[in-house]
Amino acid sequence: MAGNILRFFVQRFFRRDRLEDDLHTELESHVALETQERIHRGESPESARASVLREFGNVALVSEVTRDMWGFGWVEEAIQDSRYAIRMLRKSLGLSVTVMLMLALGIGGATAIFTVVNGVLLRPLPFPNSDRLVTIWEVPRKSNIPTWWR
Question: What are the residue ranges spanned by the domains of the chain?
Answer without folding.
Answer: 2-71
